[in-house]
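name: query_chain
kind: protein
chains: 1
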Amino acid sequence: MTRKGPGLAHAALGDLDVGVRDWTAKMQGDEIQITAREQDYALNLRLLPLKPVVLHGDAGFSRKGDSKDQASYYYSFTRLKAEGTLTFKGINHTVTGLAWMDHEFGSSILQNDQAGWDWFSLQLDDGTEVMVFHLRKKDNTFERAFGTFVPREGPAVDLEEETDRDLAKGTWTSPTTKAVYPSGWTLEIPGHKPQPGGHTGD
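structure:
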């Protein structure tokens, strides 16, 4: 929505270097530098990938629904070491932690009979990650799930045929719009149990 023409935004070809006004993300060597500022708030983070980039689906071509027209190109850095500062009303706070970066681009997701989607990107304590996605239909049924399992070491695993999931356990109603959203899931991925020392949860 912010156009390049007036000099309010930029994007480079061939590498990560994007910006919108005072918000930027740029690859510098092996690190991603994130900066943002809005009135009394600011963010300055260095993100170092702890794992190689993950290409979801078929070498980065990620199906989203039963229709062949519902797809995107999608890759992630699923585990990034994050460190830097948060500024709140002029006071700097040193922060550290883990981050996840997604980049996705492609066709429209929803068909006429679909109402929305549930999307999970999880960093587990055993050093693995999982991304799972499924579409919700207007008749309250679900299309098959798509996903990726990233082991502690080694290549990512496409979960298109392996992912099982229970329906949402409850709902949440927005106090502002009164819209009702599903809430509370249990995800099960047969054959991919937590590694020693780790655990998963709902």
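note: Residues 197-202 have pLDDT under 50 and may be disordered.
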